[in-house]
Amino acid sequence: MTTGDTAVTPMVHAIDEIVAQPGEGKALLDDYLAHYALGARARGMKLEQILVSPPMWLDDQSNTLTFRWSLAGAGAWWQMRFVGGNDPDVAAWWAEVDVRAVSRRRFFASEPADIEGLCDV
Amino acid sequence: MYKLTRLVTLADPASAPALADDIRALAAAYSVSRQLVAPTLPGSHFGGDLIAHFAFDDAAQCAAFDTALAPLLAVPTVVSVDGVAYQSGAGGRSDPGLANGVYRVLLLSVDEGTDPALVERFEAETRMMPHYIPAIRNWQLSRFDTATGARRWTHVWEQEYADAAGLMGPYMMHPYHWARIDRWFDPECPDHIVDARLCHSFCAMQASVL
């Protein structure tokens, strides 16, 4: 992907999808922002979007929290990965989340227009 | 094919050439089908100072050489050894005549108690890396028979490249690696099943050993 003669690094996205334990959605969101987001930003991640489903706080059922982060290409992704993957505090955070969640996914994505550039390595 | 790989960390990396000579001399006296003994290249991570890799036609030859090699590595100048003995697993060769390339080996440890179906899925996805990343010229994914070192190594993932740029560039930067395979390794991903401690080691090779 280029703009004029300047190559633009394809943006990549890291998406956390957390199905909270019933009644835990709001507290988990608050803790995610208070305890995880700060460190994630320091690892080069930019929080682009938060979604809550359903759009109300359930006290007897699960809310699904979705966090979409962006990173400036595969190089930034690996920087995030090396730092976060070797930080015991990060591992401890996710272990705590996994107790408070019914299920969790983390996956990585891009816009379709960026696929060709990301695969051209 | 039965194989033996040792990643040797030395108190003084400058002693690697002398030890390599001794190991090659020993290998010459045994029924070694293929051997690669070479200093690791910069960028290796927990990969030792010396890669010693051997292939044999049968398990007995492999075991006999392993026994003979052990005293050479049980000396004060050797700080640690990570290694595996294994029967060749599934592999492929798109460039069997590859010369003056780079051999890379990854030792990894799948967590004990992992669902065998998950392990098979991890293996199947890993075996598809060369399909998506042509810079991987030759490759082999094997389970270990015996392992030694910092972890209870369970798998060895070997590849050959035309040069180190193939490893550091296409292999590392292709999305099939970081956006697909790495979730098995990433402690932040709930899918992870591989211990964070890995041995990533690579060296120059004159001819393919896979």
TrEMBL record, chain B:
SMART domains according to UniProt: Dabb
Gene3D superfamilies on file: 3.30.70.100
InterPro entries for the chain: Dabb, Dimeric_a/b-barrel
Record Pfam families: Dabb
Domain Stress-response A/B barrel: 102-202
Record protein name field: Stress-response A/B barrel domain-containing protein
Organism expressing this protein natively: Sphingopyxis witflariensis
